[in-house]
């Protein structure tokens, strides 16, 4: 490569023809010597300098003029040939070693200088912030996660013993330059400042894996915050997960209502993913679709990456037929109804949607199955997959799903959203929904803290987002597992704190490890079975900083755990998975008295 550059230089000076003509044998022999030692740029240049020094001195003025003529004009510089020569030369020069260039210190590795102590020098008092870690795009929970705590069963509910857990988040852009104290005051108000100060003194708050005792520390970009909390999970129904199909490629379960599919918000162990892993040893599943926490029915997982890609393609091509059943308020029309109203996502935090002309197109077919004089059972065929599509379309038609905590709410106004009549902006609708559930002490139905801080912040942001139309609906809110909520709940680990609580411990153990304030004897999980047992005497199940340990909560009622919407059947070209019809969908079903 170096020889070719030198030869091009000879050609440029019109010396190559003279050199190759054999007029000087010594020079020809010199060329052979150069070719034999072409590996060293230094040797090549040295030989050329010695052999051609005399020729350069004797070069006539005519030769100089010819060399000037050979200099490329501006037009030639832009030509493809000249560009190719330039690139070749630059590539040749860039191939030099760093040590061959004077004045450049030699560096190890690939020429990149290490950050921190080995690279950029830190000013006095400046903190070193490591680069962000690469995140695994996939989610695979292992036995070490399943062993964090265990279940116990009580009153028909599946409960989780409290446990310690590290919530983590990288510094957000709006936090840069603010102290930890400022961020806790403005963003994580579910706990008092005194709590965070005590937690910091005990080493529970860490910045880049280093305990932080002083909350005046100023946050910088890429700071990794960790907060160790004493985590309490809400109860879910105690019915075991029934596996319908497990053929090595696809796993199909009949999901009970009240159980989330994957870890999110306040739920981690009381989720389908963790229950399957803890009780049946099934892990490394690929999520094909999701069901709302209060929705029951057919839930598909792929066992392999190939099966996941195949099912995902069916979903994208709308080749996966879905059939749901629900019970709605009022007498649904006997004739088939098709709703094609567009749906817009209002709040990604709780998945709140509404009919809006700026939303995503969608289509749902409805057929009445029965009417008992008060409520109707309706067959639903969603031909698209928008968030809360069935629930939003039924609300628009004036037949909200029975026991729907969002779309059956009076926060939508006197018409409750029928015909798209709301009369409120998106932020006002969010605020009204939060206020209604707060007054009823049921904010946990929205899966948010009962102070509603996260929703209030989102409503404030939506004032600007609405103008820019940046809240287009999507069929799935999140595909990254448990990382989609890192606001108030994530860093504090708090659940909803009901106003009607007594300062007595429930769900925790006293200093002797004995269960307190529990009337019935719990059972613990043992695979698919449950057996009577004394609660585990784990000292860590009670924490002196945890405000949840000082509260006693009434168990949730069936009305708080079940919404009358069920995924009955999923069908493809060569498969069909279905469940039994739920009891509430039968003609002789009578609604329970919730009063």
UniProtKB/TrEMBL annotation:
Active site per UniProt: 292
Reactions the enzyme catalyzes: a uridine in mRNA = a pseudouridine in mRNA
Biased composition (Basic residues): 110-122
Gene3D superfamilies in alphabetical order: Pseudouridine synthase
Disordered: annotated segments: 65-139, 460-484, 497-543
Compositional bias ranges of the Basic and acidic residues kind: 82-101, 460-470
Pfam entry (one): PseudoU_synth_2
Biased composition (Polar residues): 506-538
GO MF entries: pseudouridine synthase activity; RNA binding
Keywords, sorted A to Z: Isomerase, mRNA processing, Phosphoprotein, RNA-binding
Any one GO BP annotation for this protein: enzyme-directed rRNA pseudouridine synthesis
Record InterPro entries: PsdUridine_synth_cat_dom_sf (IPR020103), PsdUridine_synth_RluA-like_CS (IPR006224), PsdUridine_synth_RluC/D (IPR006225), PsdUridine_synth_RsuA/RluA (IPR006145), RluA_PseudoU_synthase (IPR050188)
Span of domain Pseudouridine synthase RsuA/RluA-like: 250-395
Function as written in the Swiss-Prot or TrEMBL entry: Pseudouridine synthase that catalyzes pseudouridylation of mRNAs.
PANTHER family documented for this protein: MITOCHONDRIAL RNA PSEUDOURIDINE SYNTHASE, PSEUDOURIDYLATE SYNTHASE RPUSD2
Family: Belongs to the pseudouridine synthase RluA family.
Protein name per the record: Pseudouridylate synthase RPUSD2
Organism: Etheostoma spectabile
């Amino acid at each position: 490569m170096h020889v070719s550059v030198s030869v091009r230089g000879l050609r440029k000076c019109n010396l190559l023809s003279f050199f190759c003509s054999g007029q000087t044998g010594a020079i020809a022999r010199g060329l052979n010597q150069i070719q034999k030692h072409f590996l060293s740029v230094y040797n090549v240049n040295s030989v050329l300098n010695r052999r051609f020094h005399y020729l350069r001195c004797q070069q006539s003025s005519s030769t100089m003029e010819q060399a000037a003529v050979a200099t490329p004009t501006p037009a030639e510089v832009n030509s493809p040939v000249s560009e190719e020569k330039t690139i070749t030369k630059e590539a040749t020069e860039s191939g030099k070693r760093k040590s061959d260039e004077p004045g450049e210190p030699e560096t190890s590795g690939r020429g990149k200088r290490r950050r921190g102590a080995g690279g950029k020098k830190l000013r006095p008092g400046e903190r070193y912030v490591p680069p962000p870690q690469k995140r695994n795009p996939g989610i695979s929970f292992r036995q070490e996660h399943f062993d964090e705590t265990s279940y116990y069963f009580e009153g028909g509910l599946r409960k989780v013993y409290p446990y310690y857990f590290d919530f983590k988040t990288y510094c957000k852009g709006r936090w840069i330059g603010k102290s930890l104290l400022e961020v806790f005051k403005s963003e994580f108000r579910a706990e008092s400042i005194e709590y965070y100060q005590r937690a910091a003194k005990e080493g529970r708050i860490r910045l880049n894996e280093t305990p932080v005792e002083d909350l005046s520390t100023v946050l910088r970009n890429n700071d990794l915050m960790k907060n160790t909390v004493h985590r309490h999970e809400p109860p879910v129904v105690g019915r075991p997960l029934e596996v319908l199909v497990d053929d090595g490629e696809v796993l199909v379960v009949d999901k009970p209502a009240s159980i989330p599919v994957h870890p999110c918000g306040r739920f981690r162990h009381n989720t389908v993913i963790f229950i399957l892993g803890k009780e049946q040893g099934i892990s490394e599943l690929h999520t094909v679709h999701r069901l709302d926490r209060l929705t029951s029915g057919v839930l598909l997982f792929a066992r392999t990456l190939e099966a996941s890609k195949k099912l995902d393609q069916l979903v994208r091509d709308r080749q996966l037929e879905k059939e749901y059943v629900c019970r709605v308020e009022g007498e649904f029309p006997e004739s088939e109804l098709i709703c094609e109203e567009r749906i817009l996502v209002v709040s990604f935090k709780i998945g709140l949607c509404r009919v809006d002309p700026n939303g995503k197109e969608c289509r749902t077919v409805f057929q009445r199955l029965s009417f008992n004089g008060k409520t109707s059972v309706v067959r639903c065929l969603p031909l698209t997959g928008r968030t809360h599509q069935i629930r939003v379309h039924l609300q628009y038609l004036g037949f909200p799903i029975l026991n729907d905590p969002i779309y059956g709410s009076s926060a939508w106004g006197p018409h409750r959203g029928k015909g798209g009549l709301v009369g409120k902006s998106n932020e006002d609708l969010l605020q009204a929904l939060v206020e209604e559930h707060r007054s009823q002490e049921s904010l946990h139905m929205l899966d948010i803290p009962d102070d509603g801080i996260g929703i209030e912040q989102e409503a404030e942001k939506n004032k600007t987002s609405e103008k820019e139309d940046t809240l287009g609906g999507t069929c799935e809110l999140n595909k990254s597992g448990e990382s989609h909520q890192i606001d108030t709940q994530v860093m504090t680990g708090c659940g909803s704190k009901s106003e009607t609580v007594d300062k007595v411990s429930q769900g925790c153990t006293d200093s002797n490890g004995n269960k307190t304030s529990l009337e019935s004897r719990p059972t613990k999980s043992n695979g698919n079975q449950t057996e009577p047992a004394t609660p585990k005497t784990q000292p860590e199940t009670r924490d002196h900083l945890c405000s949840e340990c000082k509260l006693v909560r009434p168990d949730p009622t069936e009305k708080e755990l079940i919404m009358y919407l069920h995924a009955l059947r999923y069908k493809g070209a060569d498969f069909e998975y279905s469940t039994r019809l739920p009891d509430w969908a039968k003609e002789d079903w009578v609604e329970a008295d919730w009063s």
